[in-house]
Amino acid sequence: MAGGGGDPLASRKVCVIGAGMAGLAAARELRREGHAVTVLEQGADVGGQWLYDPTTDTDASDPHAAAAAPVKVHSSMYASLRLLGPREAMGFSDFQFVPRAGRDARRFPGHREVYLYLRDFCRAAGLADAVRLNTRVVRVAMAAAPLRGDGMGRWVVRSMDAGLWKRCGGEDQVAAAQCVEEVFDAVVVATGHYSQPKLPTIQGMGDWRRKQLHSHSYRVPDPFRNEVVVLVGCGDSGMDIALDLVAVAKEIHLSAKSVESATTPAMSKMLARHGNLRLRPQIDRLCPDGRVIFSDGSRVVADAVMYCTGYRYSFPFLDTAGNFTVDDGEGEGSRVGPLFEHTFPPSMAPWLSFVGIQRKTMVPWYFEAQGRWIAGALSGRWSLPPEEEMVRCAGYTHDVEPHRELMAIISRNTSDDMETFRDRDDDSDNVRRHLQEWYGLAERQAQDGEEEEEEEEEEEEEEEEEDSATAVAVAAEATVHSSL
Ligand SMILES: Cc1cc2nc3c(=O)[nH]c(=O)nc-3n(C[C@H](O)[C@H](O)[C@H](O)COP(=O)(O)OP(=O)(O)OC[C@H]3O[C@@H](n4cnc5c(N)ncnc54)[C@H](O)[C@@H]3O)c2cc1C
């Protein structure tokens, strides 16, 4: 195994795409391992989603046009957005997200505080010189043949000035003369998955003449003053935006897939407090005259319909010759892979990897662990299983089991009282207790993971047990190193 038996660790030339939480976490780990890292970021600063952008992609009459890939505005954050999870769960393992004087010191701070924290982290980790801002990656493809004798130099990364990219209409297929091409040994994709709107199919959407938009393009409540607004989707965004609108809109109708399951204690409290808020079933159809007909036959005449229906994966720049796909069938961009442990496409591992693909994770620890794993796999510190084994275990959906418990804590909070859970007086104990519960669970899972691995290794009578690593083991290491 490379890197084992005293072999020196290899240093690779690695391109990280994206300087959000995932890209920064990966870049730091890659650097620590001795790789030469370049981070290409289309935005004017680091921070990803947390770099609030008051501009939008919206063409208010045609949400399909606004949702067409690729979106030109990355961030989907609205002005009032505050963290759903406590800041204690949002810090890197050795760079905690502590309150700072003169800033938003709340336990559940607003989006700007997370952006400032990520900017601080980038500086503290000495990454500023590695990040090339305002640089849109428009194509990543395998080199026709590795460019160096040792098999390295596998990826050609084409990028261009992000401002020019927008002025060219946001098309990734632009003239080569406007682009820069560079060759890297490895590419880490960390471009996020909360930007490309996912829209439902509703009869009459195409003929609706009034305001229609996806929550990706929602920023502030004022444009909805005195309007009747239908929000499609009762997830965190739908409920949060409904609460943002109650003070200005005439009526808000929250349309849920299932009224029964949407009727949580939090929803009941919201409905009791705000007379202009109503819970509705799914929309049956939209009529050109502004009527919205719900599946139970009830109807309203609305000024605006907003789709709080989530996001889909999109990697418009990635050309892997079919070795990695984003499903555009039933799931509409919600399946992506194959990926071993949400990180490596088996046929291209470790030379292509993804950080932050998972859903239902709140914390950067997982990103750190992925970064550490990728860095070690590239240097030869750790070996990956054989390709056939990775293929056998690889998946296309990316909800992460170990984090379900933490997510459950958060949904317990939000389903109790969406309006007040962030500002409870008894919060300290509550948060500490839940986080400790979660740390305990993570440690137990780490031990189980290690035991499981050992058993498997014994069964297979393999010799490389000390140096092989999985995301579970590396994630456990990151978690154990974290402190409250
Ligand atoms: C409305 C909303 C609320 C949220 N609330 C929470 C919350 O309360 N708690 C929580 O933990 N998470 C929340 N999230 C999820 C949040 O996105 C993640 O916490 C985190 O930002 C993911 O980091 P990332 O680095 O994977 O992606 P991102 O933050 O999206 O960063 C990706 C980066 O890649 C860059 N990029 C993309 N394509 C290219 C390209 N072609 N070339 C160059 N650069 C590119 C982007 O500009 C961006 O900087 C929320 C998300 C949304 C949309």
UniProtKB/TrEMBL annotation:
General function of this protein: Catalyzes the conversion of methylthioalkyl glucosinolates of any chain length into methylsulfinylalkyl glucosinolates.
What GO terms are given for molecular function?
Answer: flavin adenine dinucleotide binding; N,N-dimethylaniline monooxygenase activity; NADP binding
Bias-annotated ranges (Low complexity): 469-484
Q: Does the keyword Flavoprotein apply?
A: yes
EC nos? 1.-.-.-
Q: Matching InterPro entries, A to Z? A: FAD/NAD-bd_sf, Flavin_mOase-like, FMO-like
**Compositional bias of type Acidic residues: which residue ranges?**
448-468
Question: Which top class of enzyme applies to this chain?
Answer: oxidoreductase
Similarity section: Belongs to the FMO family.
What name does the UniProt record give this protein? Flavin-containing monooxygenase
Q: What cofactors does this protein use?
A: FAD
Provide the residue span(s) of the region labelled Disordered. Answer: 437-484
Q: Keyword Disulfide bond on this protein?
A: no
Q: Which PANTHER family match?
A: DIMETHYLANILINE MONOOXYGENASE
Alphabetic keyword roster: FAD, Flavoprotein, Monooxygenase, NADP, Oxidoreductase
Q: Which Pfam families match?
A: FMO-like (PF00743)
